[in-house]
Design goal:
The complex is a heterodimer of chains A (111) and B (112). Chain A is mainly beta and 111 residues long. Chain A is built from no helices and eleven strands. In chain A, strands 2, 4, 5, 6, 9, 10 and 11 form a seven-stranded mixed sheet that branches. A four-stranded antiparallel sheet of chain A has the order 1-3-8-7, with no helix packed on it. Chain B is mainly beta and 112 residues long. The chains are: A mainly beta (111), B mainly beta (112).
């Protein structure tokens, strides 16, 4: 069966520090992968999606970036975090015409 | 870009009663998917129900059912016999191809 994992689950970082969140999917190949951000008490904002290795589409211009170095790996990065980057980050995948499957999420607090 | 609107930030229901959560969406496409997701306090996103736009019959999953009105672009979720475990944030979502959009969510409280 397919599984999706994110890490770290919780992260506290100072303003201006770098960020790397990782997402790995198992049990499937060539999935479409997504990064969403959820601010406190709010909905999901699509940040990036990828249809294949090295293929990244950005939905919102900001100081975050994404990379897909391997078929089942999706990384969210920042060179310098801002206070406004705090939130709950969700990785998800789609295979075929169905629904999104989500990881457990990563809670980022920028101080 | 397609938008999904949930006009009820918060809803409350008495245990064992029925509640309906509203969702409208904007699209010029005729073939797409609609979903309701549940996010309990654990923050894990859980699929509740899905609807293919080409199907006229409303989807049903046990106590959960939808009222899909394609012409009105409306997709409401009905929860029957509400249980304490139904308390959560509920998100309506639209998908066509690689584009998947979510509403802002409705926080459902279940009173014992």
């Amino acid at each position: 069966s397919q599984t999706i994992h994110q890490w770290p689950a919780t992260l506290v970082q100072p303003v201006g520090s770098p960020l790397s969140l990782e997402c790995t999917v198992e049990g499937t190949s060539n999935p479409n992968l997504y990064w969403y951000r959820q601010a406190a008490g709010r909905g999901l904002q699509l940040l990036f999606y990828s249809v294949g290795i090295g293929q990244i589409s950005s939905e919102v211009p900001q100081n975050l970036s994404a990379s897909r170095p391997q078929d089942r790996q999706f990384i969210l990065s920042s060179k310098k975090l801002l206070l406004s980057d705090s939130g709950f980050y969700l990785c998800a995948w789609i295979e075929g015409p169905g629904e999104l499957f989500f990881g457990e999420g990563s809670r980022l607090t920028v101080l | 870009a397609q938008t999904v609107t949930q006009s009820q930030p918060e809803m409350s229901v008495q245990e064992a009663e029925t509640v309906t959560l509203s969702c409208t969406y904007d699209t010029s496409e005729s073939d797409y998917y609609l979903f309701w997701y549940k996010q309990p306090p654990s923050r894990q996103m859980i699929l509740v129900i899905r609807q293919e736009a080409y199907k006229q019959q409303n989807a049903t999953e046990n106590r959960f059912s939808v009222n899909f009105q394609k012409a009105a672009k409306s997709f409401s979720l009905k929860i029957s016999d509400s249980q304490l475990g139904d308390a959560a944030m509920y998100f309506c979502a639209y998908r066509r191809g690689n584009d998947m959009r979510f509403g802002a969510g409705t926080r459902l409280t279940v009173k014992p």
